[in-house]
Amino acid sequence: MTTSFYQDLRVVIMAGGSGKRLWPLSNEQRPKQLLCTNSSGLSLLQETINRMRKISSEVLVQSSKETFPEINSHLLRAYSDKAPRIITEPAHIDSAYAFTYQAALSEDESPDKILAIVPADHLIEEEQDYIQAFERAVAFLEKHPDAICLIGSIPNEVSEHYGYIETEQELIEFPQVYSIARFIEKPSRFKASILIDEGALWNCGIILAYPKTLIATVSSAIEQSANAQVAQTLTSAINQEPPQEQYPPDSSKLSFDYLVLEYAKNLFVVKSEHKLVDVGNFETLASYKQSEFIAYDSKDNIVIQNDYRQKTIGLLGLKNTLLVSSPDAMLIANRSDLDAMKKLYDLVEKDSEQAQKLSYSIQERPWGTWRLLHSEVDSGFWLKIIKVDAQKRLSLQSHEHRQETWIVLSGRALVEIDDETIELEPLDKVTIEPHQKHRLMAYQDSLTVLEIARGSILDEQDIIRYEDDFGRI
User: For 364, left (φ over 0), alpha (ψ -120 to 50), or beta?
Assistant: First the structure.
């Protein structure tokens, strides 16, 4: 890796999606890019950050307003003061708005750097081939600054879950760089087979260009657009503002490929030999997270458990069925009907009682996690398990409406209550009254505490912070 390449590339990882197709494993509060899919213990987002930091000194993460709290906690916990900066987009619409907004922001902040926009939910095998594709793209763009460069991978299977890129001529001066003939968005399996035989590539969803080139292409798309609402939305993105009009739910297909790249004049793709795995559906995810189950007279079924308690699951007389279990919800579906997952998720969201349950009973914080064991709000109590990472501490805080009792289950705790500091061993307990300032810290090793909260109002928003190691005041 050359120093100039490392310094001259700005990478923005797009992490604003909620992953509705992977409900109940992911939702608006816990997006799919925070899922861990292998034995590394790293989330998809962490793997992407680590990979991108090998090729760029400026790696940022884009989130929506809805996903920001969880992503921020996740990254602070994983990277502490080396966590990448998070950019929250003014409105969460689709890739056309998001990519344009990032181009405009990059033009203000890093106009001389090539901007690379990459997804957060890809698993990459043959990482060196992947990095080499970026090297080729950057070398090409430095010679052709008015061009836009994509990265396409050689398909390793027939799949209708990816977009395809048909190429034209390979450039003599730049091996593995091709001009683009057309895009084909998620064709049928039969059509995908033909495209692969003809040498088409999978569209990796990665775009590299100088910010001013992307903005010029968007401006051209605005001039030629027959849809005033689309033109206004793209203009708002260039101005780094939310759009004046809100798109209805049925207008969500506002992809950058369709609305903007169709108007690009100098559009090219780098062919890469890395294996691409886009974790966007259960069929793909099952290759990495299939759970064990007992079955009789059953076949072609998928079971995925993402729960702190792994249940024994038995299937009887089921065919082509998907069962997904999370701490908060369960999905049982015919595998043939998974294209309708977003419609099911929208129905759950519209049911206020069910939507409340989507808040996820396991919450990640910069200092560790908490898990809701039991809650009876009408009776005025809840039980939580709080796990604090070694030598980390919660904010100095107080509550207006609830009393908390902490019982240490493992580790040693330092507890601040007003002006007093108490050291607790396993099975020691302490009670904090409403309005008392308090803080919990894991002394040396990690700490596990049972919290019993009682009060007339039990609400996570009932918290006043006075000091915080993670800048959350």
Answer: beta
Please give the pLDDT value at position 227. Answer: 77
Report the predicted TM-score, pTM, of the whole model to 2 decimal places.
Answer: 0.87
CA distance 122 to 252: 22
In order, the DSSP letters of 116-133 are EEEESSEEEESHHHHHHH
Cβ partners under 8 Å of residue 4, min gap 6? none
- Nearest-5° angle of CA 12, CA 89, CA 463? 110
Cα(302)–Cα(286) distance, rounded to whole angstroms? 7
Nearest to 97 by CA among 208, 265, 242, 280: 242
Contacts of 466 (CB under 8 A, 6+ apart): 395, 396, 397, 398, 437, 473
d(CA 11, CA 59): 5
CA distance 99 to 207: 9
CB–CB of 260/220 below 8 Å?
no
Distance in angstroms between the alpha carbons of the first and the last residue of the chain:
40
Q: What is the dihedral of CA 150, 156, 161, 165, to 10 degrees?
A: 30
| Element holding 471 (H helix, E strand) | none
Segment of 306-320, 325-339, 439-453 carrying the highest mean pLDDT: 439-453
- Give pLDDT tens digits for 134-171: 999 999 999 999 999 999 989 888 787 788 888 888 89
In Å, the largest CA–CA distance within the chain is: 74
Predicted pLDDT at 389 = 96
Rounded to 5 degrees, φ, ψ at 215 are -65, -40
Distance CA 279, CA 98 (A): 20
In angstroms, rounded to a whole number, what is the distance separating the alpha carbons of residues 283 and 108? 41
Task: Looking at mean pLDDT, say which of 11-25, 34-48, 145-159, 407-421 comes out highest.
Answer: 407-421
**Residue 295 confidence (pLDDT):** 94
Q: Could you check whether the bond before residue 24 is cis, i.e. omega within 30 degrees of 0?
A: yes
* Cα Rg, the chain, nearest whole Å: 25
Pairing of strands 368-376, 362-365: antiparallel
Rounded CA separation 132/214 (Å): 23
- Residues 417-440 have a mean pLDDT of 96
DSSP character at residue 446:
E
pLDDT of residue 359: 55
Contact at 8 Å (CB) between 268 and 149?
yes
CA angle 259, 86, 388 (to 5 degrees): 140
Q: Which residue in the block uniquely carries the two structure tokens 């890469």?
A: 272
CA 271 to chain CA mean position, Å: 26
Residue 338 is given by DSSP the state: G
Residue 404 structure tokens: 């908390």
